[in-house]
């Protein structure tokens, strides 16, 4: 059995998150929110190319984890943020993965459930569930960040992209879960 080397980067409570946002500290709470690698000039036709890439990625998520894994970087790191909506407040975990372990994390590792669809016991809010319920027509809210239809720009459910050579690759993505049993308005 192969050991994986990824681990959560940080967990953030809702009160701490609110305080950080009030103080303008969004970048310090979510390291991927302001990384220079994510700031790309989308003029000169790159905008349409990115929109097409995002749509193709969401279609791949609906097909299989293997299909989705092809959209992740081959160099550097990428992040996964998971927001758990609990009775005692929201908890945010951010995981940072080396690109060399992206395929393993998605196919056999800790993100397998995030990219899998189980029609009989699907965890509400995980990424594949979001795509299954909200479709593939996500909207760009700023730069290269996309959120599901009806979601705010600050939604915990998102995909951010960066350039790697001539291709767009996933830089960060986020989803959510509802362990308290309360279903979100967009679901079920």
How would you sum up this structure, described in words?
The chain is of the alpha+beta class. It has 6 helices and 7 strands. The protein has helices spanning about 15-20, 25-30, 45-65, 65-70, 100-105, 125-135; strands spanning about 5-15, 75-85, 90-100, 140, 145, 160-165, 165-175. It has a 7-stranded mixed sheet. A hairpin with a 2-residue loop joins strand 2 (about 75-85) and strand 3. The chain is globular, with a radius of gyration of 16 Å. The N and C termini lie far apart (about 40 Å). Residues about 1-5 and about 15-45 have low confidence and may be disordered.
Short summary of the structure?
This protein is an alpha+beta fold.
- Please count the helical segments: 6
Distance between the termini: 38 Å
Residue runs with pLDDT of under 50 for 5 or more positions: 1-7, 14-44
Strand order of the largest sheet: 1-3-2-7-6-5-4
What's the SSE blueprint?
Blueprint: E1 7-13, H1 14-22, H2 26-29, H3 46-63, H4 65-69, E2 77-86, E3 89-98, H5 102-107, H6 127-134, E4 139-142, E5 145-147, E6 158-164, E7 167-177
Parallel strand pairs: 2-7
Antiparallel strand pairs: 1-3, 2-3, 4-5, 5-6, 6-7
What keywords describe this structure?
single chain; 188 residues; 28% strand; disordered N terminus
């Amino acid at each position: 059995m192969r050991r994986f080397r990824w681990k959560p980067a940080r967990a953030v409570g809702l009160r701490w998150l609110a305080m950080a946002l009030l103080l303008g500290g969004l970048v310090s709470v979510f390291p991927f929110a302001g990384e220079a690698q994510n700031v790309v000039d989308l003029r000169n036709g790159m905008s349409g190319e990115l929109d097409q890439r995002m749509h193709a990625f969401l279609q791949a998520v609906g097909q299989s984890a293997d299909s989705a894994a092809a959209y992740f970087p081959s160099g550097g790191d990428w992040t996964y943020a998971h927001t758990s909506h609990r009775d005692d407040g929201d908890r945010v975990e951010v995981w940072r993965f080396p690109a060399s372990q992206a395929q393993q994390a998605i196919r056999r590792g800790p993100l397998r459930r995030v990219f899998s669809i189980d029609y009989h016991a699907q965890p509400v809010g995980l990424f594949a569930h979001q795509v299954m319920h909200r479709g593939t027509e996500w909207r760009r809210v700023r730069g290269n960040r996309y959120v599901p239809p009806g979601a705010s720009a600050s939604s915990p459910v998102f995909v951010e992209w960066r350039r790697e050579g001539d291709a767009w690759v996933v830089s960060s993505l986020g989803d959510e879960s509802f362990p308290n049993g309360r279903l979100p308005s967009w679901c079920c």
